[in-house]
Fold:
Amino acid sequence: MSDAGVQTAPGAEAGVPLSRREFLNYLWGASMAVFLAGGGGVTLWYALPRFREGEFGGVFTLPITNLPAPDSPPADFPDGRFWLVNVGDGTLQDPRQPKDYPLEPGVKALYKVCVHLGCLYKWVPTNDRFECPCHGSKYLKSGARIDGPARRNLDVFFVEVLDASGNVLSRSEPVMGSQEASSVVIPPEAVALRIDTGRRVTGASNSKPGGGI
Amino acid sequence: MAIFRLHIPMLDEVKQKGLRPALKDKWVDVVTRVTAGLSPDDMRGVLRDDTPGRPNPRLTPHAEGFWLHMKPTYYHRMVDGLYPTFRLGWLSTFFGVFEIVTGIYLMIYYTPSPLVAYENMLNLLSNVPFGQVMRDMHRLAAELMVIVVVLHMLRTFITGSYKKPRQFTWATGVVLLFVTLVLSFSGYLLPWDQLSLWAVTIGASMVEAIPPEVVGRNVNLLVRGAPEFGANGLLRFYLLHVVALPLAGIVAFGVHYYKVIHHGHSLPPEAEKVGEDTAKRVPMDSRVYFMPQILTRELWYVSGLLAILFAAAAYLYNAPALEPHANPLITPLHTTAPWYFLWLQGMLKVGDKVVWGLIVPGLLTGLLLVLPYLEVGPSRRYGDRRIGLSLAALFVAAMAMLSYMGTPHYAVSTSPDQEAVAELLPQTHPGPLRSAPWEDLAYGSFEASAWAAAPNATLQDLLREFDDVLTNVQSAGRTDVAGVMVIEDWQTDLKKVTLRVTWTNVPDGTAGEFSQSVYLHRNGNYGEGA
Structure:
């Protein structure tokens, strides 16, 4: 096709027709773009770590004697990355406890990692609360956030209470009208606690100064 | 018939001219080839600052050789002084090269594995000749580089040198600033001590906050190589630090410097008419030639800086002592970001991590990147840019304030009893007790209040400091505060020191106590960089 054969209307912009060579070059370009996009996807897939089943998280069974008494300081279980707390009446009536979250007496397993940016908060007995050393988030024994940049309550693990023959007597349940998991009441015949760190319940959002929605 | 014929032209020349003249000609030839155009006499002329011949042979290496092909043959006299460049771009480049060289030296003794990385560091610091000074120099130059790069950007803003036609140069500079900061930060993880682990854990958790959840979770896995930092995460940060980021930096530097030379160094704002750019039209009488002036000066800059860096690293500056081995089960009290990220840590204490950890820093970076395309006022004169310059000053002040908020003094203080013990026995650096002379820690139990009765000056100082900080523990709710330091001989050459704070809670009369112990070895060498 020669240039002389191209007619353009007066006033219209003189266009150059799409030649076969140009068309094929667009095609090569497009195929290369598809290849690069595919390569990028494969790179991400390649770099994503793979895990064996159960490599992270696990089921921890503890004798009931490891459980702290109601309202006493929480017990640390570094292997399972959790604190075991026994919420008693003193904890329920703590004036610092935000009113927005249902809380009943019983046992909770709090995931040790601060929900802000992944540091490990620690128990500070003098202040009777958990404090994070990195950005200063503060949490009560109940897991409720009361101060600092965290924007939700602490995450918890599911807890099951077992009797001598291994039957489940009670377990933490999702709480109606809340994202939280309930505290577990300990029946008298309980001998062990089973904590599944593969099942983590995200804390309810909580952003007000002093805690609360 | 020979299979091949070896012909050595030199022998022909020796036959023709005799040995000495032939060798001399060969010497001239070799030097001219190596310098891409300068004969030995030309070289001497450069070093003697003789007037060059015509045509000027000193321009040939720029045109013919690789190393000088981007270097301009001459500069404008007005950009040759300290003002307006302050040599900050040159210094950034110098420190970049210095980091690559010292980094390669450090790599010789380092393995990126959590099993041995910390041990490698101890070996480097205590057993390798010049190992400690090598680490000190690498760290010192890294911190200086951050300072110099930031000052370079501030200077470019203040003199309005980012304006048309240099917008893109500025944008590549922002990329280089980013690369510099991430390079420094990625190097943080490599010693595999507590500081490394937790500073970088915070960084990775910020990435994890990227919404939506599925993106954040997967990007976090890509960065850490696992849900928690371990062997994979260390290896990934190592590769970032020694391969990916330096490569990105070198490419960005190439583009940046090419653009700088392409547009010429911008003249001081008051030297040109508003809206004019005469950097590339340098009058003959204003030219300062690269050879000899700039070349010889840069030679002595390099020599002087190397001497200063080495002397500073050897005598004045110690890279922060290693903290205890990385422990994924304990976050140390007062964990802080490196100083150049304190502003970010300060922002993170203010509120939501998505807003303050991602959106605000992201917006700031984006704004910085496109600044010259948004701020298009033609004048570079200081008097015409009062608003811009004032905003820049406000920005610097805000960064300083945020940096203060990033320190442990703001919003992360724990209970006063723990703070008092941390004063003597901090969890992030050696502190007074670990740095005290080991022999002076005499066996016994010492009351802080009775510091004057301690057997030696070291103990008196430590106990007096303990006694001073104990006044912070005393409050309306806490009385009878007392502090005790117990020093025991635990094993041969090993002492156990316990700091204990006791008090009485006022409303109920119960006793409170907090104590912490540390084991100190005779050859612990705390505070000496090891």
